Amino acid sequence: MPKLTIDGIEVEVPAGTRIIEAAKKAGLDVPYYCYHPGLSVAGNCRMCLVEIEKMPKLQIACHMTAADGMVVKTQTEQVLKTRKHVLEFLLVNHPVDCPVCDQAGECWLQDYYMKHGLYTSRLQEDKVKKPKAVPLGPTVMLDAERCILCSRCIRFCDEVSKTSELGFINRGNHTEIAVAPGKELNNPYSGNTVDICPVGALTDRDFRFKIRVWYLKEADSVCNGCSRGCSIQAHYNLDRPHHAKGERIMRLKPRFNEKVNKWWMCDEGRYGYKYHDHNRIAQPVKRTEKKVSEVSWDSMLQEVARKILSSGQKTGIILSPQLSNEELYLARRLFCEELKLDKVFLLAPNPDGFQDDILIRADKNPNSKGAEFLGFGYNTEALEKFLDQCAQGGVEGLVVFGQNLSERLDGPKVQKALSKLAWTAFIGSNHNLMSESACYILPAATHFEKEGTFTNFEGIVQKFNKVLEPLDGARAEWEILASLAKALGIAMKAGSPEEIFLEMAGRLDPFRNQTYESSESEGSDIRSMAAPTIPSLQQYDNIL
Amino acid sequence: MKKLISRYFVPGKTFWVEEYQKDGGYEAARKVFETMTREAVIDEVKKSNLRGLGGAGFPCGMKWSFVPQTTGKPVYLAVNADEGEPGTFKDKYILHHAPHLLLEGILIAAFANNVHKAYVYIRGEYSAAAEILEKAVEEAREKGFLGKKVFGKDFDLEVVVHRGAGAYICGEETGLLESLEGKRAYPRLKPPFPAVVGLFGCPTVINNVETLSYLSFIINRGAEWYAGLGSPKNGGMRLLCVSGHVKNPGVYELPLGIPLRKVIYEHAGGMRGEYPLKAVVPGGLSASVLKADEIDVGMDFDQLRAIGSMAGSGGVMVLDESTCMVEALMVTMRFYAHESCGQCSPCREGTGWVDRILTRVVSGRGKQGDVDNLLDICSFMGGTTICALADGAAMPLRSYPTKFRQEFEDYIAKKRSNPELLSELFHGAETKRGGQKELTV
């Protein structure tokens, strides 16, 4: 492994490491725009020029590989001066329209100007005019004037999504990013181009103008859109409900995770967050033939417990792979081990869909593998048989975890089966046909409103955090199951998801040796890992 | 004066294969194929001190010795005929008059580097030259000099004539490779150098038309003889393209190291008209300008570099005292702004910015401080980019205002302007070019 010295700090790095990465390892911050660890090296922005001893000219740190005995300097007068002027070049034709730019606040031009620029503009000429607010596709908007032509988005489409929609047109300072005539930037991963755009050139049509980024709060989570379970970050807004009509989740961003999703996530996952704030079930509701009424959680749980007890083996349970490992474990403890019910099934609320060899999995549920580890497998045949049993009057009650049965199974058959049941309980976060007809509707939290773990299709257990408080009266399913156990008079250790997890890990092999704060879900923030260090407040004081 | 390549420059005449052979053509290639080894050819070229005559002046034999022969991949030869440097028109002469001289050079270079496929990248505007070369390739195939079993030996060589689509940057060697591969001619990051990873990822030799055209003379008459023609480390002759305010502009084949004064006053017939010499651009537009008192320099790569300019592509542009250096620089920088590929930010933004400043100055709206600004911008354009285009732009941008500072200051202070020039650049260029006939050679 080559050993090199950067600004006096000796670092040892694997052969082939770029100097820019070696500098990161040494704790140094070499600025860059076009470089991205997940893409090929373009070397066009020229921000990362550094001095390397024995080389006549400054060299770009993103392209040069570390060699044994190399002496690199990133803070010499010439380097700092060149850096400043490269930034000046990048801003020569930039409109500096920060007040109306959606990127403001997370723009690398702003950040680097404060850190490496701080010059007085000497530009007296007109700027080059280019197209603004050009929709490149359903999700991405281009402002060509703000573009610094780093080619990250082009390389992403060439190398990661392998769709090659984007390219350069024209020459010199008239160069622009563009899609081929008649084409659009519409691939399953197009949203990533916005993430990797260091400036305000590509903005997200879903997020544009919803809220200023500095009002956003962020929390780490895991995507529940498919069985890949990409590490993500949820950006939310609670303080300014007047923005975006009171929606809380503003956008999702991928979070670097070497083992799962690298730097990326798919559009399906990225834009699949709307259900957290729309069409939610707010309060426990009891429905009789005569009336529909809101009831308290206590009385609701008592009543459902009574029903389960009285129906006994004539109770059916349909679990969902959207539930966390902890919830599925509680369900297993409660329904299978304690009550010893034999009609416990697993049914995915979403049908299988598109799959590719990048990230997207056909199984649109985050925890099918976890359910399998806990002994719940998909069995459509058994479910069909169960429906027949219902239709023949062999079942009295049914507890459903969010699925819309008539959508997922043979509709008329489901209707016939449901009509024969004495009672149905629906535990879910959003209204659907099933909740409309259930006798007991128990509002559940969405996965951003609770914590727990999912097991992805490769068996990687990832923890997701509670990002938001449950909406209105909703409760996490693990809480509902724990209270139900209590109402049923069954003692279970279920004070928190962590407690449940530890018990599960102590009992079940697939989870043994796993810790709750699993390192698998730890990634660094997709933006901060690549983003500049923002100057301290004191530095700003000196400027103002 | 000796004539090597230029003895073929008979106005209106192309030396087709029969005539070329009568003149001893293809004998050098035959000698190489029948009596020499690869190593011996490379050695001979090294000894001849033949420099790369496209502009960089890199020793040709040394370039060849860098090409790895054991990668398991084919080695390609890319011939740079994208003669785009303003003030340069020598390759066009070779292509028009002596296409077989180039093909023979290609044969020798192919033999020396174990190349079985050579691409000639011809500037898009040189359509007539491309047609001539295509015909010459056909002739050579019929004679058995190209194609399968060259000279009856176990050696195949195909030559592909590829026409560019007209961008200066396609003449940059890695931009040329990208263009050949069907991509935008964005110069590549180096290392790896094209000798190792070049065309289609394979080791590639890139040589200029003129460089290759001298090979047959070196083989025929020996490296020592050729080296002796030029100055130390600068072997042989080169074609100097003299243009501007001289009596006899044209292509002159002169030994490397000849004093610039002799080029202008002896060969090109001295200054045209009443004005004395003011400045010379000695090696294509990208070379630093020389003042009238600097013309005793020897025209080779090392001597010109020593005084801060370069021999470049051999385009000698002679300017007399009637020339306004401010306007000359403005037109020069317009060229770079137009031709910058747009990849690296210092070049893309710098050339455009400088162009707009100079346009403003020539519009009579120059300001005090503009000259210092230009020089400061210039100091961050050179040496900070992937290819040498920005360095090429920086050379005139630094040298004009430095060497003619007072003229720049006066132009701005007196608010001089040249609306005719601007109007021609902005509006008239298209119609003018459309009406112009192609240069006959």
Which short descriptors sum up this protein?
heterodimer; A: 544 residues; alpha+beta; Ubiquitin-like (UB roll); Alpha-Beta Plaits; Rossmann fold; 3 domains; seven-stranded mixed β-sheet; five-stranded mixed β-sheet; 16 helices; 27% helix; 16% strand; elongated; B: 441 residues; alpha/beta; de novo design (two linked rop proteins); four-stranded parallel β-sheet; globular
Q: Would you write up a description of this structure?
A:
The complex is a heterodimer of chains A (544) and B (441). With 544 residues, chain A is of the alpha+beta class. Chain A contains 16 helices and 22 strands. Chain A has helices spanning 19-25, 77-92, 108-117, 152-159, 191-196, 267-270, 297-311, 325-338, 368-373, 380-391, 405-408, 411-420, 433-437, 477-487, 497-507, 537-543; strands at residues 3-6, 9-12, 49-52, 59-60, 71-73, 134-135, 140-142, 166-169, 176-179, 202-204, 217-222, 231-236, 249-254, 285-287, 292-294, 315-319, 344-346, 397-400, 423-428, 440-443, 452-455, 461-464. Chain A has a seven-stranded mixed beta sheet, sandwiched between helices. Chain A has a five-stranded mixed beta sheet with strand order 2-1-5-3-4, sandwiched between helices. A three-stranded antiparallel beta sheet of chain A has the order 6-7-10. The radius of gyration of chain A is 27 Å and the shape is elongated. In chain A, 48% of the residues are buried. Chain B has 441 residues and is an alpha/beta fold. Chain B has three domains: 5-229, Rossmann fold (3-Layer(aba) Sandwich), CATH 3.40.50; 237-320, Ubiquitin-like (UB roll), CATH 3.10.20; 327-435, de novo design (two linked rop proteins) (Up-down Bundle). Chain B contains 19 helices and nine strands. Chain B has helices spanning 17-22, 27-35, 38-47, 60-65, 90-97, 99-113, 127-142, 173-180, 209-213, 215-221, 223-229, 260-267, 301-306, 325-339, 345-365, 370-381, 389-403, 405-413, 419-435; strands at 75-81, 115-122, 158-163, 204-208, 237-244, 250-255, 277-281, 290-291, 315-320. Chain B has a five-stranded mixed beta sheet with strand order 6-5-9-7-8, covered by helices on one side. Chains A and B meet through helix 2 of A and helix 14, helix 15 and helix 16 of B.
